[in-house]
Amino acid sequence: MAEILSAIPTSGGPYFWAYMLAPQQYAPLAAWVTGWFNLIGQIAVTTGVDFALASFISTTAQVSNGYEPSAGKTLGIMAVLLLSHVIANMFSVRSLRYIIYFSIALNTVGISCLLLAVIATAKKHQSASFVFGKFFDGTAVEGTGAKGWSVRASPEYVAVCGVLIAQYTSVGYDASAHLCEETRKAVRDAPIGMLLAILGSAVMGFFAIIALLFSIQDFETVRSAPLPVLQIFMDSCGKGGGIVLMVIVLLSVWHCGLFSLTSNSRMMFAFARDGGIPHRLHIIDRRFKSPIRTVIFGACCSFLLALPSLGSKVAFTGTTSIATIGLYISYGIPIAMTLIFPRNFKRGPFHLGRASKIIAAVACLWIGFITIVFCLPYQDPITSQTLNYTPVALGIVGIWAFGSWYLWARRWFTGRCRNHCRVCIRQLDFLGEEMVYRTDTSESKGSTHERNGSASGKHARLKSSESTANKK
Questions:
Q1: Which of 121, 237, 316, 410 could tie 309 with a disulfide, CB 3.0–4.6 Å?
Q2: DSSP 8-state code for residue 136
Q3: Cβ-based burial of 291 (10 A; exposed 0-12, middle 13-18, buried ≥19)
Q4: What confidence tens digit (pLDDT) does each residue in 388-412 have?
Q5: Residue 114 buriedness (CB in 10 A; 0-12 / 13-18 / 19+)
């Protein structure tokens, strides 16, 4: 994805990549399907993050002062969180950079200090055999007499199901793409930023898990607690200290929801610009220099997606299950196209060299594997309340994407904006600047291919559109 981003730096991200990489006759269809999977996945991720944060706040308040949570109260807290994210996202990325800097410090220095405090104050530490060798099957629903999938199937099946939460945590790679039109020298800096974010999250996440596992005082107490991480904090640092540490975690999750909405709004902005959703949503506010309409629209969609939680937890889980699988499918389509139609892919300054096709193939195989895993049952016994409704959600999105295309969208959706309004001209100017920078960078490295201007037909059309827009 970083390699594709370096070659095609636009806030549209995966759907515009799919448009540029697909054959001309299939480009609009590829963009439409990829765009809708990405859009709905983005909305569901924002819903999942903010609803989880609202639940964490409710549970922390319950432990702290006896607060009695309910579905309605949790939804109300989520509405307040979304409102705070809307207010913060009303400003441009230049204004948001201070929040970004604070978030980086919080998620590195702050979390590191938190983990050190937990380890240092823990009365005892678990052994390495417990941390790395203990296996616990949590797939059995308590009170039903079920034995869990490690007995019904195998421990390996349970381990595979455990990939679900890891993939949910590691989603959102396309955020760097959606913000690249607000990034200088995006063909170089955006892909590097994407990889550094993944690397930093992986390292910090690994040490966080290890530190928490070593600091568990009583496994059964932690396992049965309404919020296990809070229980670990309180067992190590006392009730007051544990709640203070939990506040740091809540702040980190708040920033996650904030930037999820930021990425979501930029993707909607680009999709509206290219005609995938109502064109009026792509307007940039002159005062704040931010796509406020898509910020508000994205927050409203995320709130609406959380409404089923009032009636049924199962319905809410089913609606939000598309978050991870929807995004990964939208990632996989353009990656697969670099393998199927390699002539349409012209590398940017950042590329993987000979390893490109191998890594792309592995990525496609992995996405196919986890897509199947996402649809498997992970609770025992299987009832209407424990059934994995991800296949249903996936089917609904797939039917909508392909059905809407063949019913009406194929008559007018072209995959990119044809009427060059002021905002679209700015996009084309930006792309022109990035392509010039990419060419200059390639020439400085002795790239004869780029210097001679050899490009795909689509890149040629892009340059022609830039020229037309600049004249207008």
A1: 316
A2: -
A3: buried
A4: 888 888 899 999 999 999 999 998 8
A5: buried
